[in-house]
Fold this protein.
Amino acid sequence: MTTLVTTAIAAQETAVVPDTIRKWVQLGHLAPAGRRGRGHLFRLEDVFAAERATRRAHERGRPPAGP
């Protein structure tokens, strides 16, 4: 079963602020899986994958690669 979460919950689960989740979407590192009203919903596994890729890239000192 796929777990869909809001931007706020995605941010909480990855220990970042909601603006970071929105930035990942803007940069193409994370794709919404649906909508609830005006807000996006994300697959939790996609959120964790975007977090891992972003953190690895920052550890190496460069921006993460696109999808």
In short: The first strand starts at residue 4 and ends at 6.
